[in-house]
Amino acid sequence: MKAGWEVRQLSDIANVKGGKRVPKGYKLETEPTDHPYLTVSSFTDDGTIDTSELRYLSPEVFAQIARYTVSSNDLFVSIAGTIGKAGSVPPELDGANLTENACKLVFKPGICRDFIYYFTKSHDFALQAAANTRVAAQPKLALERLGTIALAVPDLAEQRRIVGILDEAFDGIATAKANAEKNLQNARALFESHLQTVFTHRGEGWEQKLLASLCDPTRVITYGVILLGGDVPGGVPCLRTSNVRWLRIDTEGIKRIAPSLSAEFGRTVLRGGEVLVNVRGTLGGVSVATPEMAGWNVSREVAVVPVEVSRINPEFVAYWIGAGVSQHWLGGVKKGAAYVGINIEDLRLLPVKVPGPAKQLDIVRHLASMQTETHRLESIYRQKLAALDALKKSLLDRAFTGVL
User: Fold this and answer.
1) How far is residue 19's CA from residue 153's CA, in Å, rounded to a whole number?
2) How many Å apart are CA 181 and CA 385, to the nearest integer?
3) Quick one: how many helices (H) and strands (E) in the chain?
4) Can you name the residues that pair with 3 across neighbouring β-strands?
5) How far apart are CA 74 and CA 106, in angstroms?
6) Exposed e or buried b for every residue in 308-327, given b needs 16+ CB within 10 A?
7) Tell me: the pLDDT tens digits for 143-195?
8) Residue 32 and residue 20: Cα distance in Å, rounded?
9) What is the C-alpha to C-alpha distance for residues 206 and 363, in angstroms, rounded to an integer?
10) Residue 162 and residue 157: Cα distance in Å, rounded?
11) What is the largest CA-CA distance in the chain?
């Protein structure tokens, strides 16, 4: 620790005061009053308040819990559910009430609020908070335990100097992250746009078919295993909607089911070359089963489209279903509210415009090449985002060990 710094607990440098639950049965107001009520869902990751869905107290209820308010000079900290979200309220929200799932730190002289805010972003704070959190139905960090969290504190001038450095650095990192995230979105958007163009600007010789008519006559479009049961070590890999993504298959965290259960749903045991389409829950996923997936199965949320590979290129079909024209069509036939899905009968009627075999292959090669380049760019931007996150952690570590 740097000379002149002193290890102190939060309770030594601030009064730790909790928020207050509204009276039982009381429903918060949606129409603005003079008394905003801040819940943890209002706290953002960047230390501000999301005012888009603020709730309010009536004057009568505010009178009952008036002393549980927060000032723009204080630091609020969430202590239940999502532990450790911290920040400050803008002056216009001075006097807002705090939920019982949060507290405020009212600082004593010689302490810079923003210095402690940055400390709550550090790995050290996260470790100490986790060690002091009671895990039950909902994680809870008691006020007295929060107060025992310790850090090394320099004098006020040094605190402010460090805050100034972190403010400038984090502003630059935020700008760089925003640019990287925009580039990441643009890379996929460019590919999606090109994919749509390929299938809307068709030449002559394309014939319209129904998806079902392109399938192996000995197999039908259907969904997979209904109840997967527990994970079976060494069992049959079973693809779910979390595995079938847009034009790719992610095998991380794949579930394995009992071989006997898979055998009961032999109609969807994969041979390789089938087109897989998400039809329940998270829609939009579509890809092709690889030859290495022969013998695997799928859950009931995934439809198996066993195209006849001698007549139609399965990758061409996957690209067609993944393109905006088909996604729009499928969106028009989806059903349900809480649990949205596409009926197999409707999926079988999906229109597919089909060129000759040579043209199919040309399109697949072209799109695959462009998709590979898109993935390369996405990987670069994700690496940049990871590097920026690592830089933030490094700066915070250095700031609170006195080497910044």
Assistant:
1) 26
2) 8
3) 11, 21
4) none
5) 5
6) eeeebbbbbbbbbbbbeebb
7) 999 999 999 999 999 999 999 999 999 999 999 999 999 999 999 999 999 99
8) 20
9) 13
10) 9
11) 81
